[in-house]
Amino acid sequence: MKMEINPLLMSLMCMSICVSLVSSVRFDELFQPSWASDHVVFEGEVLKLKLDSYSGSGFESKSKYLFGRTTVQIKLVQGDSAGTVTAFYMSSDGPKHHEFDFEFLGNTTGEPYSVQTNVYVNGVGNREERLSLWFDPSQDFHAYSILWNQHQVVFMVDQTPIRVFSNKEHKGVAYPKDQPMGVYSSIWNADDWATQGGRVKTNWAHAPFVASYKGFEIDGCDCPVTTTAVENAVKCSSTGERKYWWDEPMMSELSLHQSHQLMWVRANHMIYDYCTDVSRFPVFPVECDHRR
Ligand SMILES: *[C@@H]1O[C@H](CO)[C@@H](O)[C@H](O)[C@H]1NC(C)=O
Radius of gyration of the chain from Cα atoms? Predict the structure, then answer.
């Protein structure tokens, strides 16, 4: 007797296998330690970055990417994290580099973390925003993502957008779209500025400070170091038959639901917005048109 295989069952099996393959991508397929590899340790499926009085630590993607989305799940330093900064970011190389930053600023036990985001274009940053979160990020893993396409850079926390840097080239604002970027994370001592404006220092008696990671994902257009800028630009643009999902029309701006989420975050969790800092920017930054 011939065995009949139900095609629906086949596709269901494939779906579950394919999905689990994607979500279980191992750290070392995408990333490698970049700094103090003895402070970068695996415990089961969880990667830990440690900071003590000798050193901080960090990891970086093996490749660089032009557009796409990266997500990691992070559980931040528990208890006393004052003076520490844990960063998750994308960056290109060189003096005119682009950079998209999440910086988690620690605090004394029981006091809330803040999340600072920043965007550098052609080497120029000074676009800090600071938020509180609607949960304690040291209690559990939460997903932090950066989506980047021709139209926008979106910072997301558990899929809720907390910041959008839109392409405003039509208003003369430079937009990052020409340099492949790597994905990075690190933990270091920043007690000169991080916690309560630098007033609270790192208490080394509480070291090591440990940030935990899992769920590493990068879904982007891979740009190996051996390819030229022109080749990358061609390879990573959606033309003709080839369409990257992040170039679909619906990815060029937030959905209505997402814009409501963003409005809620800004109304309830904003601590600092460079766009409204008149003493620092007497001349209104052009990209801030809607916020003063
Ligand atoms: C730390 O806690 C204080 C007091 O609740 C708060 O004002 C501050 O924004 C928190 N975050 C940082 C990074 O200092």
Answer: 20
Compute the distance from residue 271 Cα to the ligand 1 centre, in Å.
10
Note the pLDDT tens digit of each residue in 259-272: 999 999 999 999 99
Q: In a 10 Å sphere around its CB, with 0-12 CB exposed, 13-18 middle and 19+ buried, how is residue 19 labelled?
A: exposed
Q: Could you say which DSSP state residue 252 is in?
A: S
Q: Which residues line the pocket of ligand 1, CB cutoff 6 A?
A: 105, 107, 111-112, 114, 194-196
Give the per-residue pLDDT at 91: 98
* 233-242 own/partner pairs: CB under 8 Å, 24+ apart: 233/66, 233/178, 235/66, 236/66, 236/67
pLDDT value of position 241? 83
* Active site (annotated) includes residue 241: no
pLDDT at 21 over 50: no
> Which residue's alpha carbon is nearest to atom 13 within ligand 1?
195
Spatial CA neighbour of 149 closest among 77, 53, 62, 252 = 252
pLDDT digits (tens, 9 = 90+) for 147-201: 999 999 999 999 999 999 999 999 999 999 999 999 999 999 999 999 999 999 9
Helices first, then strands: H and E counts in the chain:
4, 15
Domain ranges (residues) in the chain: 27-284
pTM over 0.85? The answer is yes
Q: Which fold has domain 27-284?
A: Jelly Rolls (2.60.120)
Q: Which of 103, 129, 217, 287 is catalytic?
A: 103
Query: What is the H or E stretch that residue 49 is in?
Result: strand 46-51
Distance 3 CA to ligand 1 centre (A): 65
